[in-house]
Design brief:
Blueprint (H helix, E strand, L loop, with lengths): L2 E6 H4 L3 H13 L1 E3 L1 H7 E2 L10 H5 L6 E6 L5 E7 L2 E7 L11 H12 L1 H7 L12 E5 L4 E6 L9 E5 L1
Parallel strand pairs: 1-3
Antiparallel strand pairs: 1-6, 2-4, 4-5, 5-6, 7-8, 8-9
C-alpha cells in the first residue's frame, strides 16, 4: 500500500470524532527527517503539478515533518506548515478514529489555554506541548516521558505513556 495525501487538519477536525483523532495523532507524533518522509509517502496528491517539496515548504522556514499512528495502528505521516498539518495515510485514507489518552487530553488542554506556549513553540509545533512547563521525551522503547520543568513551574509531576 502506498501512503498518499489524505487530508489537512481543518477538514479532519470538522467534527468531534475527528477533533479527538487529531489530538491523539498530534500527541503521538515524533519528528522525522525529510528523507524518511519522502521515502515513505507519495507527495503528488498534495503538490500542484510541477511543484516540488522545496517549493511547498519554502514559504515557511519553520516547517516540520512528523510520523504518528492512528487507532488501528496505521502509520500516519504529516507535514506541519504555516499552522496547518497535511496528513498522509495508507491509500489516502483518513486516519482511523483514535481516542486520546487522559495524558494526551491534558497536554492538549493545557496548551490550548496557554498563549505563551503558542508564542514560544511557534505555529508549527503540532502539539504546542501543553505549556512551556512541559518537557516531553520519547525514549527508544517507545515510552513517552513527560515532566513538568521545575525551572519554569512551581509544580513537578512526572507522567509516562506508551506511544
Amino acid at each position: 500500500m502506498a501512503i498518499t495525501y489524505a487530508t489537512q487538519c481543518d477538514r479532519l477536525r470538522s467534527n468531534p470524532e475527528g477533533d479527538q483523532t487529531w489530538i491523539a495523532l498530534i500527541s503521538r507524533a515524533a519528528v522525522v527527517d525529510r528523507t524518511e518522509l519522502e521515502s515513505a509517502v507519495d507527495l503528488s496528491g498534495l503538490l500542484d503539478e510541477g511543484e516540488t517539496l522545496d517549493d511547498f515548504v519554502s514559504q515557511d522556514p519553520n516547517h516540520r515533518f512528523y510520523k504518528s499512528h492512528d487507532g488501528e495502528g496505521n502509520s500516519i505521516y504529516f507535514i506541519a506548515h504555516s499552522g496547518f498539518e497535511f496528513f498522509f495515510g495508507e491509500d489516502g485514507r483518513w486516519p482511523a478514529f483514535t481516542e486520546p489518552t487522559e495524558l494526551e487530553l491534558r497536554l492538549h488542554q493545557e496548551c490550548s489555554r496557554d498563549a505563551l506556549a503558542g508564542t514560544l513553540l511557534g505555529a508549527n509545533n503540532p502539539r504546542l506541548n501543553a505549556d512551556p512547563c512541559i518537557e516531553r521525551e520519547v525514549e527508544r522503547d517507545g515510552n513517552v516521558r513527560v515532566a513538568e520543568n521545575p525551572s519554569l513551574c512551581k509544580r513537578q509531576v512526572i507522567y509516562t505513556s506508551q506511544l
